């Protein structure tokens, strides 16, 4: 049998992997809440199952990655409304298509705030966790 020790770099890389997994769970949950009338229930159930699996196997401080994941749909909404505010028209094969768009700034600011909060809390918890070992 081999006695393998886990280096600090391996452990830190693994913690970032758990953070990214939780980021995806948070994004899936937020998207499920936004799409509740259509496919939202499926996404929420998928996020719940993934959360249970991650809580059983994963690194506990990485749970704050779900907070950062809540920002992903907000970033997408900011991208979709990038031409706003107001009516935005695009040329199509059959003529012209116009849509009303919101200002992207609130979506971008909310997403940036959630993403930064999740990222910073994870860094603080990771630093505290490393300091105790």
Average per-residue pLDDT, rounded, comes to 82
N- and C-termini, Cα separation: 26 Å
Main sheet strand line-up: 1-2
How many separate domains make up the residues? Answer: 1
- The percentage of residues in β strands lies in 5-15%
Computed structural class: mainly alpha
> What's the shape?
elongated
Main beta-sheet strand count, sense and barrel state: 2 strands, antiparallel
Q: What is the number of beta strands?
A: 2
Name the helicity range: 55-70%
Order of helices and strands: HHHHEEH
Structural Rg:
20 Å
| Count of DSSP H/I helices | 5
Low-confidence stretches: none
Protein name: Integral membrane protein
Transmembrane segments: 20-53, 60-79, 105-125
Keywords: Membrane, Transmembrane, Transmembrane helix
Characterize the structure shown:
The protein has helices at 8-34, 36-57, 65-69, 71-80, 105-132; strands spanning 86-92, 95-101. It is mainly α and 133 residues long. The protein has one domain. The chain has a two-stranded antiparallel ribbon with strand order 1-2. The chain is elongated, with a radius of gyration of 20 Å.
Task: Provide the fold topology.
Layout: H1 8-34, H2 36-57, H3 65-69, H4 71-80, E1 86-92, E2 95-101, H5 105-132
Antiparallel strand pairs: 1-2
Transmembrane segments: 20-53, 60-79, 105-125
Keywords: Membrane, Transmembrane, Transmembrane helix
Protein name: Integral membrane protein
Summarize the structure.
With 133 residues, this protein is mainly alpha-helical.
Keywords for this entry:
133 residues; single chain; 2 strands; mainly alpha; 5 helices; two-stranded antiparallel sheet; elongated
């Amino acid at each position: 049998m081999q006695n393998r020790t886990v280096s600090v770099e391996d452990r830190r890389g693994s913690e970032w992997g758990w953070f990214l997994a939780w980021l995806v769970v948070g994004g899936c949950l937020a998207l499920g809440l936004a799409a509740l009338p259509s496919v939202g229930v499926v996404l929420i159930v998928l996020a719940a199952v993934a959360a249970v699996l991650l809580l059983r196997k994963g690194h506990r401080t990485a749970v704050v990655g779900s907070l950062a994941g809540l920002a992903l749909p907000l970033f997408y909404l900011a991208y979709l409304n990038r031409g706003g505010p107001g009516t935005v028209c695009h040329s199509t094969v059959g003529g012209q298509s116009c849509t009303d768009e919101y200002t992207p700034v609130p979506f971008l600011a909310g997403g940036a705030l959630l993403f930064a909060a999740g990222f910073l809390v994870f860094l603080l918890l990771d630093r505290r966790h490393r300091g105790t070992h």
